[in-house]
C-alpha cells in the first residue's frame, strides 16, 4: 500500500500562550491518534497554510485582530478545495444565539470555550481525524475503482476488437469455405461431362464420337476459363500483372465483346440497349476486354430471359465512363458494399443455376484499379436490377492509327517436332493431335532423354514442358542452346506457369516462345507454322 500523509490539524490563535497551550495538548495525543499539528498566528497565515495543506479540522480563534475568526472562516470556505474543512471556533466568551448563528453561517461545525477541557478537545478532534482517515480511505478506494474501471474499459475495448476481428476472420473463413465448395462444384461438372464423353468415345458410332468430342472441347474450355480467372485474380491482387498500355477506343473494345456474345447466341431473348460513343483511354486491350466481358456476362447471367440490358460508353473531358445495367435479380442491400470482395457471390443455393466462382467482380475491380480507374455498383435491392459503372482517365485519340499486326503465312511442309513432356496422357494426346495435322513428332518423357534425342537427331522445333524430372525445362533449353547441333532449334515452352516472372525466366533460358497450358491449338499451330521462317531469319544462338 502506498504511504500517505497523516491527517493534519490547524490551530489558529493570535495569542502565543493560548496557541502553545492548544498545540501542546494536541501533541500529547498525536502519536496515538495518528495526526500532525500545524499552527498559525493570524487569519492571513491560516489562509496560506490552507493553500499548502489539506486539514482534517481547523481550531479557529474568534477574536483576532485584523481578520477575525468569522472572516477567516468565510475566506477558507470560499475556496473550492477547502470549502468542506470542518471549523471549530474557540472563544473565551459565552456565545449567544446570534453569535452561534453567525458562526454556523460562516461554516462552523462546533464551539469550544476556554479554558478548554482536554477530554472534550480530544474527543472532538478524534472524531474529525477519524472522519478524515475514512475519507482518505474512501478516496483511495475510489482511485482504485477508477483505475480498475479504466482497465476494464480498456480490456472491454480490446475484447470487443478481438471479437470483431474474430467475426471478420470467421466471415472470411466462411466465404472461403463457400468458395471451395463452389470451386469443387464448378470443377466436377465439366470433369463429369468429360468423363462421360470419354466413355462415349469408347462406344461405336461416328455420331456419338462427334458429340463426345464437342463435349470434351467445350468443357475443357470451361475448365480453362476457371483456372484463368483464378490465376488472373491472384496476379491482380499481388500486383504481378504487367499491363501493355496503349491508347484504345473503349467503345470499339466493348463492341467487340458484344459481337462475341451475339455470335454465341448469349444475347438472344434480351432487349439490348447499346449506346457507344468514341472514348479513348490508355490501357491493356486484353485486360480491358476481360473487364467488359465480365460485366456483360454478369448482367446476362443474372437477368432472366426477356429482360433488358443497357450498355453505354461515354465520357467527360477528363474521364471515360463505361456502364452496364440490367433489369435482373438485383443486389441485396447487405451484399452491395461487399460485391467486389473476393469470393463474394449472391445467395448460394444447391441448384447453382447461375454458376461461377464469385471472383469475376473482384477481378474487374483489381484490373480497373491497375488502370488508374474505379468501379462502383448500384442497385435498389432484390428484383430491381443493378448497374455497374467504370470510370477511367481519358486520353486524346492518337493522330496516326496503329496498323494491325501482319501474320506471316505458314510455309509449305511441316516442321519436325520433338515433344518433351513427362505426363504420359498429356504427351500422348499432344502427339496424336499434332500427328492429326501431319506434323512428324518424336517424344521424350524427361529432360535428359529430350536433350539426348535432340542431339542424336535435331528437330525443327522442340515443345518443352518446364516441370520435368531429372533436369527441368530451363536446363533443357540451356543445354540445347550450348550444343552447336541444336543451337538453332526453335524452342517453345509449354507450362502451367503464366506470370510475368515465369515468362522472363523462360526467355532468359533461351526459349523463343512461352505458351501456357492448356495450349490453344490455334496458337500452337500458328507458332509451328512460323517455325521455318523464324529459323531462317534468326542468328545463331549457340553459346
From TrEMBL:
Pfam families: HATPase_c, HisKA, Response_reg. Residues 128-162 form a coiled coil. PROSITE patterns: HIS_KIN, RESPONSE_REGULATORY. Signal peptide: none annotated. Residues 8-129, 416-532 form the Response regulatory domain. Residues 182-396 form the Histidine kinase domain. SMART domains: HATPase_c, HisKA, REC. This is histidine kinase. It comes from Massilia terrae.
Amino acid at each position: 500500500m502506498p504511504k500517505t500523509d497523516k491527517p493534519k490539524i490547524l490551530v489558529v490563535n493570535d495569542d502565543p500562550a493560548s496557541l502553545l497551550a492548544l498545540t501542546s495538548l494536541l501533541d500529547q495525543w498525536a502519536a496515538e491518534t495518528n495526526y500532525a499539528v500545524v499552527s498559525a498566528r493570524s487569519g492571513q497565515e491560516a489562509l496560506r497554510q490552507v493553500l499548502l495543506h489539506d486539514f482534517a479540522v481547523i481550531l479557529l480563534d474568534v477574536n483576532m485582530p485584523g481578520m477575525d475568526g468569522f472572516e477567516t472562516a468565510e475566506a477558507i470556505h470560499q475556496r473550492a478545495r477547502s470549502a468542506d474543512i470542518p471549523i471549530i471556533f474557540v472563544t473565551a466568551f459565552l456565545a449567544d444565539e446570534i453569535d452561534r448563528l453567525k458562526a454556523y453561517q460562516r461554516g462552523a461545525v462546533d464551539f469550544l470555550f476556554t479554558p478548554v477541557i482536554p477530554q472534550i478537545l480530544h474527543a472532538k478532534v478524534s472524531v474529525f481525524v477519524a472522519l478524515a482517515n475514512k475519507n482518505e480511505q474512501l478516496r483511495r478506494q475510489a482511485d482504485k475503482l477508477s483505475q480498475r474501471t479504466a482497465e476494464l474499459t480498456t480490456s472491454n475495448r480490446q475484447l470487443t476488437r478481438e471479437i470483431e476481428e474474430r467475426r471478420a476472420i470467421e466471415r472470411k473463413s466462411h466465404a472461403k469455405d463457400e468458395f471451395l465448395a463452389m470451386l469443387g462444384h464448378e470443377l466436377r461438372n465439366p470433369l463429369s461431362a468429360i468423363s462421360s464423353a470419354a466413355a462415349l468415345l469408347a462406344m461405336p458410332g461416328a455420331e456419338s464420337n462427334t458429340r463426345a468430342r464437342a463435349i470434351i472441347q467445350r468443357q475443357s474450355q470451361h475448365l480453362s476459363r476457371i483456372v484463368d480467372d483464378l490465376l488472373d485474380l491472384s496476379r491482380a491482387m499481388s500486383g504481378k500483372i504487367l499491363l501493355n498500355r496503349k491508347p484504345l477506343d473503349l467503345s470499339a473494345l466493348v463492341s467487340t465483346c458484344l459481337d462475341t456474345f451475339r455470335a454465341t447466341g448469349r444475347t438472344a431473348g434480351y432487349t439490348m440497349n447499346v449506346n457507344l460513343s468514341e472514348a479513348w483511354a490508355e490501357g491493356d486491350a486484353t485486360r480491358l476486354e476481360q473487364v467488359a466481358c465480365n460485366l456483360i456476362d454478369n448482367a446476362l447471367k443474372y437477368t432472366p430471359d426477356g429482360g433488358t440490358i443497357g450498355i453505354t460508353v461515354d465520357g467527360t473531358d477528363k474521364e471515360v465512363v463505361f456502364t452496364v445495367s440490367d433489369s435482373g435479380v438485383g443486389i441485396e442491400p447487405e451484399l452491395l458494399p461487399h460485391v467486389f470482395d473476393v469470393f463474394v457471390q449472391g445467395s448460394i443455393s444447391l441448384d447453382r443455376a447461375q454458376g461461377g466462382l464469385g471472383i469475376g467482380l473482384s477481378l474487374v475491380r483489381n484490373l480497373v484499379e491497375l488502370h488508374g480507374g474505379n468501379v462502383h455498383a448500384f442497385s435498389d435491392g432484390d428484383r430491381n436490377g443493378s448497374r455497374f459503372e467504370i470510370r477511367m482517365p481519358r486520353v486524346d485519340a492518337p493522330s496516326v492509327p496503329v496498323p494491325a499486326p501482319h501474320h506471316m503465312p505458314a510455309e509449305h511442309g511441316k516442321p519436325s517436332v520433338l515433344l518433351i513432356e513427362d505426363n504420359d496422357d498429356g504427351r500422348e494426346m499432344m502427339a496424336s493431335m499434332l500427328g492429326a495435322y501431319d506434323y512428324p513428332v518424336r517424344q521424350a518423357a524427361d529432360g535428359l532423354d529430350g536433350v539426348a534425342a535432340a542431339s542424336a537427331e535435331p528437330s525443327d522445333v522442340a515443345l518443352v514442358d518446364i516441370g520435368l524430372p531429372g533436369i527441368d525445362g530451363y536446363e533443357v533449353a540451356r543445354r540445347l542452346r550450348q550444343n552447336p547441333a541444336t543451337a538453332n532449334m526453335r524452342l517453345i515452352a509449354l507450362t502451367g506457369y503464366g506470370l510475368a516472372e515465369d515468362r522472363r525466366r523462360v526467355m532468359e533460358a533461351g526459349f523463343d516462345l512461352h505458351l501456357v497450358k492448356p495450349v490453344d491449338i490455334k496458337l500452337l499451330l500458328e507458332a509451328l507454322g512460323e517455325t521455318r521462317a523464324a529459323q531462317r531469319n534468326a542468328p545463331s544462338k549457340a553459346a
